[in-house]
Amino acid sequence: MGTVLAVDDLSWHAGGARIVSDVSFSVAEREFVAVIGPNGAGKTTLFNLISGVLRASGGSVRLDGADITREAPQRRARRGLGRTFQTSSVFASLTVRENVRLAAAARRGSCLRLWRRADSDAGALATADEALERVGLADRAPEVAGSLSHGDKRKLELAILLATDPRVILLDEPMAGLGAADVPALTEVIRSLDRTVLMVEHHMNVLLDLADRVAVMHHGALLAIDAPERIMADPTVRDAYLGEPL
Ligand SMILES: Nc1ncnc2c1ncn2[C@@H]1O[C@H](COP(=O)(O)OP(=O)(O)OP(=O)(O)O)[C@@H](O)[C@H]1O
């Protein structure tokens, strides 16, 4: 399988500190890589470097072979790099369907066709409904997004992402703030994405269930990247967590 995302010697320095140091790995087509590491290990910074929120101090990021290291986040998104954020990014006063339709319309470029009312774009609506179906929110489509439970908002964010048809999906702690009862349903939705995924996640049971490989960050460096069972058995990884349960 071909490499979709490749990170080479990626670094980010701030105030003399090396927040991310020489991180290299690649992600294959349809591979699911979970990123773990203690608080402050540099996981979110790594995602910010990949998505372009931060500019790398050194190294490179390539998407489908193209060097995107110096590109702005919007340009990377147009190339197919989709990301969710730890904070919710849903328009609370719009309906669930409208939130997803807007994302689909933006992807299709119909917001630029001013002579055509965006709400007549049947293609964007069909894409939106399909994405809502995929995440299990089809029956909530007419409701105002602000009325959704936290777990359903997370599903909506995934539907918004799917509507843009991303090549690679970066998920930063998708389970954050969810009650234990909501975790299995969202895990199933994430599994069904069937895309190339890079996900920061603290729930070990979730990532052991979903990940093909687990990348371990520690003090800004990539300590290990391997199959979940080998990571769990790795003494260096265990030491990095200073006895915290993995
Ligand atoms: N703009 C910045 N300037 C200086 N230091 C920063 C900046 N952003 C992050 N850091 C520091 O870099 C380190 C890594 O932060 P980061 O948020 O990437 O870690 P993380 O692994 O995502 O942690 P968590 O699991 O707590 O979200 C932290 O020590 C943080 O304080």
TrEMBL record:
Transmembrane segments: none
Gene Ontology terms for molecular function: ATP binding
Domain ABC transporter residue range list: 5-244
Keyword ATP-binding set for record: yes
Keyword list, A-Z: Amino-acid transport, ATP-binding, Nucleotide-binding, Transport
Record Pfam families: ABC_tran, BCA_ABC_TP_C
Family of this protein: Belongs to the ABC transporter superfamily.
Protein name: ABC transporter ATP-binding protein
